[in-house]
Amino acid sequence: MMVGEDTALALKKLESALTKNAHVRTQILTLLMSHPDGLTFKEIKETLKKSDESINQALQALILLGYVEKLGKQYKLKPGVRDGIFRVLWAASDELIMEMRRKGL
């Protein structure tokens, strides 16, 4: 979630990042969240054991969505993305809880 984005837009972007070919993008986001200094393409590929094409497509999508940046040979989460992901998920869970309460669940 970037500064100034409302929860709905941020949730939509996150949903987009995690739908088509979600497993690879989700794995890359998770991997980069645990490596704040970033990883090279080779390190990502060796860790996830996916094809070059699969990793490249996922990384390009994450870059276009504004979640990942490439600095030299390192891919890393853009500043604020880790916290943004947690804020979006937290807000979405709050909205879900409120909706469930309205429905008496």
TrEMBL record:
<protein>
    <submittedName>
        <fullName>ArsR family transcription regulator</fullName>
    </submittedName>
</protein>
<dbReference type="InterPro" id="IPR036388">
    <property type="entry name" value="WH-like_DNA-bd_sf"/>
</dbReference>
<keyword id="KW-0614">Plasmid</keyword>
<dbReference type="Pfam" id="PF13601">
    <property type="entry name" value="HTH_34"/>
</dbReference>
<dbReference type="InterPro" id="IPR027395">
    <property type="entry name" value="WH_DNA-bd_dom"/>
</dbReference>
<feature type="domain" description="Winged helix DNA-binding">
    <location>
        <begin position="24"/>
        <end position="69"/>
    </location>
</feature>
<dbReference type="InterPro" id="IPR036390">
    <property type="entry name" value="WH_DNA-bd_sf"/>
</dbReference>
